[in-house]
Write a structure and sequence with these properties.
Four copies of one chain form a homotetramer. Chain A is α/β, with parallel strands linked by helices. Chain A folds into two domains: about 15-70 and about 110-320, Glucose Oxidase, domain 1 (3-Layer(bba) Sandwich), CATH 3.50.30.50; about 75-105, no CATH class. Chain A contains eleven helices and 15 strands. Chain A has a nine-stranded mixed beta sheet with strand order 1-15-13-7-9-11-12-5-14, sandwiched between helices. In chain A, strands 2-4 form a two-stranded antiparallel sheet. Chain A is globular. The mean pLDDT of chain A is about 95. Chains in contact: A-B, A-C, A-D, B-C, B-D, C-D. The interface of B and C includes residues 79, 82 and 87 of B. Strand 4 of chain C pairs antiparallel with strand 4 (about 100-105) of chain D.
Chain lengths: ~325, ~325, ~325, ~325
């Protein structure tokens, strides 16, 4: 890539809209503020059959977890199990019960996860204008704990771009825009309403499980949404609180037009405060939606309340 | 304690009911099977005002997490933050965005968490009769992943025992029975229905935050439900899928009658397959219920999908 | 590989010598007992010029550590540094000093390391006849702590097999025997004495740094010593206390004759109690020996005193 | 403490000597440069009987490790052991050997350890003048790796201050000076020579094991050397390369005269480049010295080569 012709993201987004200050100088949850009690109540109407779907990928899989290059998959360590009693080391509690215990070592952005609004920034400022130095040693501002304390409940719509394009999963680096999202909605006969949670399926993470890790990471470039001023405007106008996808970064790795890496993290998350939920496995949900034709649902998710965390794992629930 | 007169738990529970085999020989989620689509749909009726509550305690708090003695609180490690760019070490991505990343090391039973049904056992068998040797090196059977893949959605009822007894939190070792639970329901004017998720507040974890860790752990004995054949019978008859409390073990540490440690783990979890959600902070939810008089709500929770895990952290959501 | 024709190691070694009981039923350090005060004193004669060499490979390298497939390289986490003060979070101590702190997460066999004598076994028994069930949850017997409490000091001889064969490093799977070791000694004009520490250079780990990780791990089979009854006899007769090499397993991965994996771990470590020091980088030491012609030296090493550890990292020192 | 009257350490040490630049602008090992080949050779004369002592405290002890408040003791995790084969999960290697593996999570300053010269600083500069910002995210300069690559070999002298004062261990906060060190040498009839490694016993860490952790940490203030310009001058003149003690910080926690915390870290380590080895257990060595009257010995130590580490665990070896 030619760094000379790639603009700084601050330059690229110099006219882009911001929601800073909109919910007060201390706000840390951004566009999730769009999800008030009326939205919660309205979302209940999307529950029609009582079907449930959980959207997290497996975590600490002995066969390996899919994580962004440079991160490391979660590791689970056994602390105690029946072996301790077989080996004569198990504690003898009154009544004699046995138990198993374990521990985990994991990147907080190493599974299906919510980004803190302060996870990515530029020009020395996070979402809502917080100083980038507040990130040192842990997020003093706009950490994932704020999102976790609040919880996320609302009406969500699945947009199945892979299905729209007639393929099991998008190609590496394949892009789409909000117009494709709208086209998917039209094809699926589902309405995207203001303040809906947008759930986009590319099928990409499914290829990790079907094609294997080697193929998945070879020449690694994720497919995804790609930046345009119009797309940002659409998210802004529609007051989208939360973008949920089945890729690690919710957008194409490199914007093919500007060359900027992950510009929607700047435009949507840092500037508008849109919450990002990444790396969901949407395969079962999408298959069910295709079968019963219902693409809207009640979405309930609350990441772990990691104090000062840059993100936290989550297992979102879709209720149809 | 007199170990001589303390019976083995297998002896104590020799006539106790079991749900083994009820949902097939491969079942790993037990009484959560009681929560089918009809229960999910019915639960929506408990959503009346659109208020949300998240029930996890903070995790990886630099001031320390409350964990069972012998376990260790979660630790968060910073991987990268604005300091790296100040020090000249931050990566230079196209477009120039900065970011923060972190990792965690934690006991899987070290925060608000779901126990796997295979977490505790006796007489060499887990829930559904699985061999205890299947726990070695990670739960091959009845791991928390099974619960996490399913998700938990249903009507829940808060029973505020601390409020019933007119105290901010129960004393150490203070016990109560299902009759107290029913008395709380009556006092609160809420009906406990079959297949309801039972959420019990003792206030105990709140004392960790108000009175401090030293006081909390001094002569550590949790208050809680205490074993009786009648209590087990009640859970069985009522087909309770999930017991949620604000203590680490969901029951009094030592049964004052038999001397057995944590017998409800055997009677309810191992034998009946009741899911245990432990260490929730119910203070805000309870205050709101006391104010608006609505003690039932939609409960949505899905622990992390830890492969072979003995438990997994969770941030349950209550929607009123 | 044909498992049908590969014998069980107990069959392969059924007539092999054992040192079990030789140093008492509670011994946990095996052939290191050969290194008594006379050997320590005699070893001082190998110090002639005052040159030092440290033999560990770098650990927790951000570029990655060389570890056996299935293990994971060490990770270092920053706890605090000058960034905390820049960000306003650093503690203010009387007098105002600043400091940096960090932590590590590592496999205990994931760097240059001593194996505990109980690290590998067969037929249900460890070195000295200890029951294999004593390994459950941590080595109750023959842990690395025993070696660490003792320390290792003696005369060592470097045998440079790569140099003998005129190559920078042996090929993958390339083997050699004790006769080659003796040939190297002859070529180097150095005498191998009874109770000498044997230090063997294959150059293999150097290829990790020169050729890169991908090439190193492609079709991974380490070169090394290969099993024969005569080789075992030679170690036994020579009373070799410690075998030190620059490969991860101190022997060829698969014995090409029998098909057995790592048989010298059984024959030398489990049966004779020979201490294994693995994954040293011998490049600087070997270059110096080639230059000054002195291939013997004082060897001083003490792994970390990891309680119940299966192994522990070490940074051995060679003094010429 | 009165912070108003406590000077900044830069003020306290404004006239103190520095060795910055003495060994070049790229030097990272400081006073260890005093230990050249002549010193190594001379040290061999201190080996008279062939007795060995290892000086590390046990690490990852299930009963707990002694660590500075705010740090956490090392934890060892079992990865695999005989239980896996009992449970039917163990891998089946050709020949059928079994093995045990484990991992560790530890503070790098959480056991007997070498401080990197860049571990503590003031006024924005580390040893040799390196910018404090080079510590961000890992020590770019003066990390422990530099010391580990070099290794430490020299003549050492044990000064037993506890014995001098006729007590098993010094009281909390009890101080002594270089004059006491000289008095101990005189009482022990041992000469301290230029460039000797100074090993000081207070007995303090022994009290952790004899009196228990609660007593050890109650009103925690370590005993130790205390600052004076004369003491710094003595270390400078004597060209002491390495200060080794049995406390966590090698000096009294708070200087009772100035109120400054750990001023010798500034005066000796940062300014003079004296290597600090902390938390050795000297009980066996001291008992032996008292018995045979030999207080000098060959000291050999090499911490782990932790890349960018602020410190690294070590198991020093004393050879008499």
């Amino acid at each position: 890539m030619c760094n000379i012709c790639t603009p700084e993201i601050g330059e690229l987004l110099k006219d882009a809209p911001k929601n800073w200050g909109k919910w007060g100088p201390e706000d840390e949850v951004g566009s999730l503020n769009y999800l008030g009690a009326p939205q919660v109540l309205a979302a209940m109407a999307s529950v029609r059959s009582g079907k449930l779907f959980t959207l997290q990928v497996p975590m600490a899989d002995p066969k390996g977890d899919p994580v962004w290059p440079g991160r490391r998959g979660a590791e689970r360590y056994q602390i105690i199990d029946e072996g301790h009693w077989i080996g004569g080391k198990g504690p003898q509690f009154p009544g004699g019960q046995h138990y198993a215990d374990d521990a985990i070592s994991a990147y907080l952005q190493g599974s299906t996860q919510y980004d803190a609004l302060g996870h990515v920034w530029y020009d020395g400022q996070l979402y809502n204008g917080y100083d980038a130095k507040t990130t040192i040693g842990g997020l003093q501002k706009a950490s994932v704990q704020a999102i976790a304390e609040r919880g996320v409940v609302g009406r969500a719509v699945l947009l199945d771009i892979a299905r729209l394009r007639g393929k099991p999963y998008l190609d590496k680096g394949e892009t789409f825009s909000h117009l494709d999202v709208l086209a998917a909605a039209a094809a699926q006969k589902v309405e995207i309403r203001k303040r809906d949670i947008i759930v986009i399926r590319t099928g990409f993470i499914e290829s990790y499980y079907s094609a294997g890790a080697s193929a998945f990471f070879a020449d690694f470039v994720e497919p995804g949404l790609t930046y345009s001023p119009e797309l940002v405007h659409w998210f802004h106008e529609m007051e989208i609180p939360n973008l949920v996808t089945d890729t690690m970064a919710n957008e194409v790795t490199l914007d093919p037009v500007s060359g900027v890496m992950l510009p929607l993290h700047g435009a949507l998350m840092r500037n508008l405060g849109v919450a990002f939920t990444e790396l969901c496995n949407l395969s079962k949900l999408a298959a069910d939606c295709a079968e019963d034709g219902q693409y809207d649902f009640l979405y309930v998710a609350a990441p772990l309340k990691i104090v000062q965390g840059t993100g936290a794992p989550v297992n979102p629930v879709a209720i149809k």
